[in-house]
Design goal:
183 residues; mainly alpha; 0% strand
């Protein structure tokens, strides 16, 4: 559920960002390419950084930092129309996006009993694909109704909700073995 909320916010922002760059920021094609290139290039640095941090401090710490950092990206973009600043935000987001890619699967596997891992992985993938289809439609509808900046802020807000759920560990997954131990 937590992962679904975070990725729904992410996929909600995905089609809005280029529209925002063109319509609100009036970014040139070169700037849009630069934003994309910076985010992708920094992603590689982020993989090395978060792999090291994951080994050193654990995947939960990486999960919390990266969900928070990724959630702030669309909000920060919505607050500015300066293309240079957006490029900096995109680079920072690349670092956080790399960490999310690394830890989401690891954290999922920690919460499911081994005998049901294939079921839970397929459910998680199914929810991700559902989010990939539905969230961009919701995001662009919000953009049409309330403006692209508002839609970006809502997508970041949804991701912040997911971050808060991870931080509070709510709802907490309980496995059958844990329930038996407590009984």
């Amino acid at each position: 559920i937590k992962r679904f909320i975070v990725i729904s916010g992410y996929y909600m922002a995905l089609p809005i960002l280029p529209l925002y760059f063109v319509r609100e920021v009036n970014a040139s094609d070169a700037w849009i390419a630069t934003i994309s290139m910076v985010q992708t290039a920094i992603l590689i640095i982020g993989y090395f950084m978060w792999t090291h941090q994951s080994r050193r401090r654990g995947t939960r710490m990486v999960l919390l930092w990266t969900t928070l950092g990724a959630a702030l990206y669309p909000i920060m973009v919505a607050l500015t129309k300066q293309v240079g600043l957006i490029t900096v935000f995109a680079g920072i987001n690349g670092i956080f996006a790399a960490g999310l890619n690394l830890v989401f699967f690891d954290e999922l596997m920690k919460t499911v009993p081994d005998e049901y891992s294939s079921t839970f992985v397929s459910l998680a993938q199914g929810l991700q694909y559902l989010s990939t289809i539905v969230s961009p439609l919701i995001g662009t509808s919000l953009g049409d109704q309330f403006g692209l900046g508002v839609a970006l802020a809502v997508s970041g807000g949804l991701q912040l909700v997911g971050f808060a759920m991870f931080a509070m560990d709510w709802p907490r997954m309980r496995t059958a073995t844990l329930d038996q131990e407590l009984a």
